[in-house]
């Protein structure tokens, strides 16, 4: 599902119910001159996604109410969703979780704490 990021200033949506984690990641992407939006729940992510139309989504899966897997499934149904690169960022690394992430339509599964270099390597591969 991974498609190249085509714009000179790509848009990333960071979704995590841990406000500090989401805001820190947003600062790192802002420094790299990305357009960044942050959501702290699955519901917020879906609403922001429709307006922001991100090309990259960094998505925590362990969120209350609408978890990351359900959020990803719903994102894929939106007009912008099939082209977005969705990366699961989670503390869970077990095989059933990896299957759930893949079945939800996410492109990558990274386990926290993720070295920023790993995220940037994925982004660089998409941008090239």
Keywords:
5-stranded parallel β-sheet, Rossmann fold, globular
Please outline the helices and strands.
Layout (H helix, E strand, L loop, with lengths): L10 E5 L3 H13 L3 E5 L2 H11 L3 E5 L7 H10 L7 E6 L4 H9 L4 E4 L4 H12 L1
Parallel strand pairs: 1-2, 1-3, 3-4, 4-5
Overview of this protein structure:
This protein is α/β, with parallel strands linked by helices and 128 residues long. The chain has a single domain (11-127), classed as Response regulator (Rossmann fold, 3-Layer(aba) Sandwich). Helix content is 43%, strand content 20%. It has a 5-stranded parallel β-sheet, with helices on both faces. The relative contact order is 0.18.
Strand arrangement within the widest β-sheet reads 2-1-3-4-5
Distance between the termini: 16 Å
| Low-confidence regions | none
Q: How many domain modules? A: 1
**In CATH terms, what is the architecture?**
3-Layer(aba) Sandwich
Give the % helix: 40-55%
Structural class: alpha/beta
Average pLDDT for all residues: 89
Q: What portion of the residues fall into strands of 2 or more residues?
A: 15-25%
- Return the string of H and E elements: EHEHEHEHEH
Enter the CATH topology name.
Rossmann fold
**The CATH fourth-level homologous superfamily:** Response regulator
Give the number of helices: 5
What does the largest sheet look like? 5 strands, parallel
User: Using DSSP, what is the number of strands?
Assistant: 5
Net shape: globular
CATH class: Alpha Beta
* Oligomeric nature of the chains: single chain
- Rg over CA atoms, rounded to whole Å, is 13 Å
């Amino acid at each position: 599902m991974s498609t190249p990021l085509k714009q000179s200033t790509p848009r990333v949506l960071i979704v995590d119910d841990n406000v500090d984690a989401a805001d820190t990641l947003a600062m790192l992407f802002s420094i790299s001159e990305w357009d960044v939006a942050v959501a702290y729940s699955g519901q917020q992510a879906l609403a922001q996604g429709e307006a922001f139309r991100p090309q990259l989504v960094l998505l925590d899966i362990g969120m209350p109410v609408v978890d990351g897997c359900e959020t990803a499934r719903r994102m894929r149904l939106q007009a912008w969703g099939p082209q977005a690169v969705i990366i699961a960022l989670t503390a869970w690394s077990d095989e059933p979780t990896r299957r759930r992430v893949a079945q939800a339509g996410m492109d990558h599964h990274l386990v926290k704490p993720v070295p920023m270099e790993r995220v940037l390597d994925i982004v660089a591969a998409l941008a090239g």
